[in-house]
Amino acid sequence: MRCLEPSLTTMSCKRRELTIFERGEVIGAWKCGVSERKIAEALNCPSCTIHKVISTYKIRGDETLPPRTGRPPKMTERDGRLNKNS
Q: Which intervals carry biased composition (Basic and acidic residues) (predicted)?
């Protein structure tokens, strides 16, 4: 448990997505040999979330989230700014 930072114990994971930083901490702790259950307890997250992060890392090779599915927005951010300013 030496690899986990003390700040991890104060984080809460209920019904929110892990940030890329938190995902990196999960992968780092896992690479140090910390069990998924202990990582989940330290992050206050379900162990299935930790398992999914590690499984995704094994498949994709990085901690980033996969691209979202669905229809892209009709207006870009730039279009929105132009429309607001005119």
A: 74-86
Q: Report if pTM > 0.70.
A: no
pLDDT in tens, the chain (86 residues): 455 554 444 455 557 889 999 999 999 999 999 999 999 999 999 999 999 999 999 998 888 887 788 888 788 888 888 777 76
Strands (E), the chain: none
Cβ atoms of 64 and 20 closer than 8 Å: yes
Query: 7-65 domain in CATH 1.20.190.50?
Result: no
